[in-house]
Amino acid sequence: MSKRHNQGLATTTRDNICILDSDDLINATWIQFFPERHEAFNPGTVFFGKVSADLDTFKSYTSPDVISHKILNPIKLLFHNPICHSGSIFSKGSAMNIQGYSKSLNSQFDWDLWLRLSFADAEVIFFNYLAAYKRIHINQSFESSKHFTYTMRGVHLQLKAALKNKFIYIIPV
Predict the structure, then answer these.
(1) Rounded CA gap, 104 and 149, in Å?
(2) How do strand 124-133 and strand 46-52 relate by DSSP bridges?
(3) What is the pLDDT of residues 58-102, one digit of tens each?
(4) Please, where are the H alpha helices in 12-167?
(5) Contact call for residues 108 and 30 (beta carbons, < 8 A)
(6) In whole angstroms, what is the distance from residue 94 CA to residue 122 CA?
């Protein structure tokens, strides 16, 4: 999967990338909302919004009058990935500067990308705005019988990022 994402990154002529998985839906107003706010932030910023797994909620969504946002701390991102790949918007240039998606991962390649971008000083910003509808189905890694393997891959990813960025020290007991 990450190979296809890297091919897309390499061939696109635009700098702002919005990922949409084939079984998900994008909120068209999210795409319209983005350019108005983009200029106010660092060009390497990762933008993401809320995601709904309820199609009725997605279809009936009305944009709020006041749209708040918060910047995620890279350390918090290390322990929890709140960013859904679908609907996230990020800079091609920033992704290419860190060699894009990891070629060695079979899952959670998006979380790895967010971690590497955030530790490379990209801001990661959550907007209180519905970005996408995420269809949940049995074939997804975190929903399937391979949930334990998926979880262990996440722990491995967290440890790798923490050790690389020197945020934890392992003390033998």
Answers:
(1) 16
(2) parallel
(3) 999 999 989 899 998 888 888 888 998 899 999 999 999 999 999
(4) 28-38, 55-59, 74-79, 92-97, 109-119, 147-164
(5) no
(6) 8
Q: Strand 16-18 to strand 46-52: parallel, antiparallel, or no bridges (unpaired)?
A: unpaired
Whether the CA torsion 64, 21, 80, 90 is positive or negative: it is: negative
CA–CA gap between residue 117 and residue 43 (Å, rounded): 12
User: Measured between alpha carbons, how far is 126 from 69 in angstroms, rounded to an integer?
Assistant: 5
pLDDT digits over 27-61, tens only?
Answer: 999 988 887 777 788 777 899 999 999 999 999 99
**Model confidence at 144: pLDDT above 60:** no
Q: pTM for this one? A: 0.82
